[in-house]
Amino acid sequence: MDAAHLLAFNATLLAALASPGPALLLALRTATVEGRAAGIATGAGLALMAATWTTVALLGLDAVFALVPWLYGALKLAGAVYLLWIAVQIWRDARAPLTATPQVSGRRAFARGLLVNLANPKSVLFAGAVLVVIFPGDLTGFEKSAIVLNHFCVELAAYTAFATLISTPRARAGYMRLKSGFDRVAALVLGALGLRLMFGR
């Protein structure tokens, strides 16, 4: 493994982070509604679970999902139910006014981010595919550890940047004006992703 491999991996990772999905949607909404600290804590949870899926892929446990399909199915179902639950909560509170930034503990925000990425076992399959394409097959234990640490650091830096940009007073004021519509769209997107995860192959 050399620097070119890590650069290619990071470019792919950043492109995936920028694409709309439950992780990005949760991170942006949390930073806007609950503030920068909560947004960063959520991003840390998302990053840790994503790096964990990369660890799983590097250990070859994606093959376990192929050999034990019921385990993959169980994780998919649990993840789908969790995403649908979040969607219902957001939809229900869409018209509720926000007069002040809610006080959410860093631990709770972190756990929420962790659970959202845990809710998508497809991440390990994606990680496995990317790793096979980019990295050589004879990685040492140290190189695998470096890839996992790199993954965590890149995601944490990206989510910290997102939280810093989106939690500004101007961004929050814009969200307050469009809160009902934005929250309903967010709920529909998360709900659709949950249903896709539940019923998709």
Structure description:
The protein has one domain (3-199). Helix content is 82%, strand content 0%. It is built from ten helices and no strands. The chain has helices at 3-18, 22-34, 36-58, 62-67, 69-92, 106-118, 122-134, 141-166, 169-177, 179-199. It comes from Litorisediminicola beolgyonensis.
Features:
201 residues; mainly alpha
Residue fraction in strands? under 5%
Classification by helices and strands:
mainly alpha
Instruction: Return Rg in Å.
Output: 18 Å
Mean pLDDT: 79
Transmembrane segments: 6-28, 40-61, 67-88, 109-135, 147-169
Pfam family, one: LysE
Keywords: Cell membrane, Membrane, Transmembrane, Transmembrane helix
InterPro entries: LeuE-type (IPR001123)
Please summarize what this structure is.
With 201 residues, the protein is an all-alpha fold. Helices cover 82% and strands 0% of the residues.
Give the topology.
Elements (H helix, E strand, L loop, with lengths): L2 H16 L3 H13 L1 H23 L3 H6 L1 H24 L13 H13 L3 H13 L6 H26 L2 H9 L1 H21 L2
Helix pairs in contact: 1-8, 2-3, 2-6, 2-8, 3-6, 3-7, 3-8, 5-10
